[in-house]
Amino acid sequence: MSETKKSDVTVPAQTSAPAEEREVLLKVEGLQKHFPIRKGVLQRQVGAVKAVDGIDFEVRKGETLGVVGESGCGKSTMGRVITRLQDPTGGSIHFEGKDITRLNTAGMRPLRRDIQMIFQDPYGSLNPRHTIGSIVSAPFRLQGVEPEGGVKKEVQRLLELVGLSPEHYNRYPHEFSGGQRQRIGIARALALKPKLVVADEPVSALDVSIQAQVVNLMDDLQQELGLTYVIIAHDLSVVRHVSDRIAVMYLGKIVELADRTSLYESPMHPYTKALMSAVPVPDPKRRGTKSERILLRGDVPSPIAPPSGCRFHTRCWKATEVCKTTEPPLLELRPGQRVACHHPENFEDQAPQDTVLLTAAKEAAELVSDEVLAESAETSAAVAAEVEATAEESTEEASGKPEATDKKD
Amino acid sequence: MISYILRRMIAAVILLLVVTAVTFAIFFLLPRLAGQTADQLAQQYIGKSPTKADIAAVKQNLGLDQPVYVQYWDFIKGIVSGATYDLGPTTAQCNAPCFGYSFKTHVEVWPQLTDRLPVTISLAVGAAVMWLVGGVTAGVISALKPRSFADRTFMGIALAGVSLPMFFTGQLALFLFTFQWPIFGRTYVPFTENPAQWANTLFPAWCSLALLYSAIYARLTRSGMLETMNEDFIRTARAKGLRERNVVAKHGLRAALTPIITVFGMDLGLLLGGAVITETVFSLHGIGEYAVQSIRDNDLPPILGVTLLAAFFVVIANFLVDLLYAAADPRVRLS
Amino acid sequence: MTELSKTGAAVGEPVKASSDAPTAFLEVRDLKVHFPTDDGLVKSVDGLSFKLEKGKTLSIVGESGSGKSVTSLAIMGLHRLGARGKNVQMSGEIWLDGKELVTADPDEVRRLRGREMAMIFQDPLSAMHPYYTIGNQIVEAYRVHHDVSKKVARKRAIEMLDRVGIPEPAKRVDGYPHEFSGGMRQRAMIAMALVNNPELLIADEPTTALDVTVQAQILDLIRDLQKEFGSAVVLITHDLGVVAEIADDVLVMYGGRCVERGPVDDIFERPQHPYTWGLLGSMPRIDRETSERLIPVKGQPPSLINVPSGCAFHPRCPYADVPKGDVTRTVRPELTQVGTGHFSACHLSPEDRTRIWTEEIAPKL
User: Fold this and answer.
1) A206 compared with C154, residue with greater pLDDT
2) Which residue of B has its CA nearest to A38?
3) Which CATH number is B109-330 given?
4) Is C264 on the interface with A (CB under 8 A)?
């Protein structure tokens, strides 16, 4: 608990290095989901809610990809689109190398076994009139699968697997607490031995002590069954705990995608930094040292008309003209860390020629303590020097890239 | 907001056109499809033992020999701008809105409707006021003290109200208060002539009709209020230190009553098209009674007129309800 | 009205003579709130005591059903209103600024509500009336307790909206709740609660429905306003991060009772109750990287109808067998002092507690 103990906890080696070599299970490119807005007497389409607006990432076998972001950033929509519960309006989704972007219901049917979803609300997602047995065995019926030893036996095995008693087979959802219902939801998702499980806020409706039980359960199941998870959550502490790699979303875009250690210890996107600094740390001694806290001004802009250039420029304390005009591409600035920013933190500036802050940025900077500002200048300079000294090629590559990828947009 | 109103208005007009088309089809197309000739239709205007020439004349004058869509067009034109019929030696000017002539009495339909409309309006509005006040009050009291004596009593009466048919409660009221103890008048007097007499005569009818409806409203209000009073914003209102009666009236009722507006608009609209049984039971010469009489006589034009008038009231009521709802609930204005 | 005062003393126990004058601004003594239901008596709060001074923040922590929200409603006198409030059984004492509220005339409590004590709720969207403008709702809150014209109250509402950081307050005052973002709504809710300068502010999970960045803004705002108005704040939350951020004192509730209470530093550094350890161990941390498993509390929260005998936590406590005999199953532990202002209700001996905490729990966090 106390600070001195921290060093005693041996941080296990990141699994991300071998993960790089692991097979890609899910590959998403330029994924878009726009919801049309209709208005007026004729209900013409006057615009669109750009819930997901061009994102790329891949999920490797056996890893956990965490997706974080504030409400309205499109993370839940993304989850529903990659499981094809909703149709994308653009981009492509490949699952095990197969393009599943445009598969119809019949085409998706065999894939429904491999891709499963766990939902947030353990109350709303279980039909109150069905027994637990019938809920958990539904996937077998729908897919016409006859498990070894019969459905009932398999369901009871699943219930045991998620820590419920097999005798619960004939009970109804209302007899269970929230945590137990979430276990039932997990048992149902695992019935067909899926390869990919997409969990949308799997623990946010649960009490802290129960939340830990479910997190541990998901962890165990991953070890045991070799599952791959995409975990969508707003709680950055939970995401840090469960994920190997993490994607940070803002207004329908991924702004940073990195392995856990890099992201939490040296975040590069100012938004990531602000987001993490906002999480209250359960350590009263760190209160008062408000230096780390970055308060963001106002609210997230509307996804109907997202800001030009970098979407975060309206609230960023580092924003300059280029941020307003040019959308920064998601570049791998450091191995395993992709960032979409012209002026990243903890790294060399990508647009050093552009130094004049926007007015909004000056206002935003008032809420950011001097320590943060100084620190970021310092680290940027230090990293720049380091990078220059050690690897000249990579500097060239990194600074050369923005122009090259601008055309892509 | 303006776009919202416009959209609703256009929808209302389209709905009315559809209703006229369907009604017209039922009354004039179906008989033809069922094998009735234009001659047989024309014959109904003339009465017993018509001559061939008479039928042909009527057929031509009324356009019964025309294709159906032309007849429909003439019909709509008649409603909008009136029509002139060439009835042999004389011509008859049927002013807009023209719903044609009765087969039996050869009287224009529209003046008949306007004559009877005040009776129906008196009946419907009077009863509506009573059931709204009674039903909502009973519902609120029941909701504030669920399972109390008052709640059980009101809900018991409500159950009886919904279950008992009008021809029972109506006859009973008539028997008791008009014949047994003649407190109330027997013949309808227009409001403009003698308001006291007007109310006096209509009172038993109002009560019977209101009992039926207030039962439904009491239940609606009760469930609406029970739900609303458990809302978070009620807790907030109490946390402000508001008196409980203000919490109920300003915060609870406002939210609970808004959905009831919808039902009320529909019910009132329907009733204005004629309270068939009530008018018959209480011998009130309203739209409903006119409809019954015309149906008995197989008199198509008045039936068509009544149907369209009723549809008109329902559509208009719907339109008003939509506007009212938007005014009451700011969230509706967005969509 | 008389019904309500009767229920005040309806619980078998006689109301203790309130001769002992309160020593703090807010003092709750042996508060019990029980709800009779068809399934049995729900003992939501079952003997709770604490004190709170002006200018200080007390955090009440617990899981759903621990009684923390009922406690706040009891202080406000809100749980006795409405159809379900008629048969609430309540006993104990609540002293606010020298006035006793449990036995007070309900109308007197009503006059204090919103003026001396105010409350903000978890979900500002459902906590505001959807049909009235933000301005109207604030004006109403002000005019309940101040005999002023609507115009004056409106000016006050705009002033408050400005104070809580809502841009263009003169324009937004006429907006409806659904037109505000979540964060702005919670700001408006705070403006409404503070419009009468209450001396006690109760915040029930004020940031749970909000995003972290907005949560940071709101916590900051509450802290600033508290400094400015010097009010006492009761903050109810399940998030120990928020507690560490804002509280002076912490009260941990379990099964309707306080299991541990103390200054915030003590609670985080020297927690003295296995349930508190469980909460700390269940919580993933953003400030450190551990791939180790979380240490959850096993089992489910207790039913408030059949609260386990003895220590309510014993069925879930990993150390229930450490004290000799079946004391944890039969005897209800009382709060005992374990440090300055630090109390814990646990049968473990102080030595055992220290040993378990330092050797078994702390290293794993």
Assistant:
1) C154
2) B335
3) 1.10.3720.10
4) yes
